[in-house]
Each structure stands twice: as C-alpha cells, then as structure tokens.
Amino acid sequence: MSNATANAKRMSMIVSKGTLDWAYPPFILATTAAAMNLEVTMFFTFYGLTLLKKKLDLHVSPLGNPAMEMPMLGMRVGMPNIVAAIPGVDAAASAMMKNLIKKKGIASIEELRSMAIEADVKMIACQMTMDLFEYSKEDLIEGPVLGGAATYIETASKSDINLFI
Amino acid sequence: MTHQILDVKGLNCPLPILRARKALRDIAVGATLEVLATDPGAVKDFDAFCRTTGHELVESKLDGKVYSFVIRRAA
Predict the structure, then answer these.
(1) Has residue B12 got a pLDDT over 50?
(2) Contact between chains at B48 and A37 (C-beta distance less than 8 A)
(3) I want to staple A84 with a disulfide (CB 3.0 to 4.6 A). Which of A63, A158, B57, B65 is the partner?
C-alpha cells in the first residue's frame, strides 16, 4: 500500500466483540485516529453493543482462549481449559487483567470511551442487535445514534479505512 | 524560548498522543510543547502524529530513560 496516510480523512469500524481484550483495539484506534484528524465512525453490533452500556463490566476469560498468557510469578502462564471453566476463574482473570492494565499506565476502557466521545468520534448502535438482545436506549450511554447495516455501508463507502473488529 | 511541558511518563499508548493533542490545542500557534514520556512506542507514534497533523517535530531525543519530544503547533 502507498504511504497515502496524509490523505486519509475518514475511518469506519465495525465493533462486534465485547470482552475486555477485544474492547481495546477499537477504542485505541478510534481515539488515536481522531487525534490525527481523521473523522471516525464506530458501528457497534452484536457483543460490541455491550461496550456502549452505561456501566461497563467487561470480562476476559482464559477459557478457550489459548493465546492468553498472563505475566505471573516471573514467567508468562497460560491456563488449561479445565481450570478456566471453574466458576470464579473468569472474574479473577478479568480483575487481574484490569489491575495489570492500570499498573502499566494504560487507559481504562471507560477513559478511552470518554476520550472518543470528546474527540467527536461518531458512534452508531446497531438497531437490530438492540432488538435482538432487548436493549433500550436507557441502557446505553448518551450519544450513540441508532442505525442499521445500510447506515454502516454508506459510511464505509465514503471512508478511507474500514475495519472489522 | 520556554516550552509548555507535558509529562506523560509512565503512561502507555495511546495516552501520550491523546494528551499531547489536547495540550497542543491549549498553546498558541507557533508555540512549542515538550512531551516527556517513557513509552518507547511513542518515538514512532510522535513521528507519525506530526507527519499526519502537520505539527512540527522540532526534536526527538532520549535522555537516560526519558524520551523528550518538542513539538511546534502548526495551526
């Protein structure tokens, strides 16, 4: 690809996942792109819709997540599925990941989300997903508008960068 | 010339860039901002940031463990 980044003006993203680990890439990319003067639109669908909830309670599970290794006891340790399936392990892993994130001076998702809104990143909540999982506008933060696939396609057709996360 | 200083030591991507962008909005056009960071990723990030936004990267250096980026606000 050419180095035409200086001409890239618009970016769109489909955000389809709602776990703690998958919440980071869209918000980091959106805020950074906005900081670099791109016009950014995020379309939240399926599990991505949970990232627009007023109160975020994001989890990450080591279950079925074979690439997940946490720095522990001086090495990087993965967890066998049979252990990860035990009740409570998911909550512990999520708490551990959030602690690690804070310790390393990385922004929380709440902070990144506020910064995205402050930077005028446009957020669209998938109408179909809201109907499917029976979410109402009151469950979500102020700001996002409702839209469907055609809304996204129109935005994407005018954007220089389109991502599916 | 005195610069405005922005201390983002200990903060990781994307905070150095986001905070710098905010701080640049608060200084006059032509004024300079010095960003102090410890994130090694910030070196390339500030290069890219300045190239894309048109702000001038006056200086980018490493002083022991601390990176220092001096940026002049373009517009």
Answers:
(1) yes
(2) no
(3) A63
Residue of A nearest to B55 (CA): A36
Smallest CA-to-CA distance from A34 within B69, B52, B9 is with: B52
pLDDT at residue A87 above 50? Answer: yes
**Residue A1 pLDDT:** 38
List CB contacts of A128: < 8 A, sequence separation 6 or more. A45, A148, A149
Among partner residues B14, B17, B52, which is closest to A6 by beta-carbon distance?
A: B52
Structure-model confidence comparison of residues A72 and A131, the more confident one: A131
Rounded distance between C-alpha atoms, residue B58 and residue B4, angstroms: 14
How much is the pLDDT for A71?
Answer: 81
CATH numbers and ranges of domains, chain B: 4-72 (3.30.110.40)
Across chain B, mean pLDDT equals 93
Q: What is the pLDDT of residues A123-140, one digit of tens each?
A: 999 999 999 999 999 999
Say whether A6 and B10 touch across the interface (CB within 8 A): no
Assess whether pLDDT exceeds 70 at residue A112: yes
Q: Which residue has the tokens 């469907």?
A: A148
Asked if the C-beta of B12 comes within 8 angstroms of chain A's C-beta atoms, the answer is yes
Chain A residue with Cα closest to B50: A36
B13 is catalytic: yes
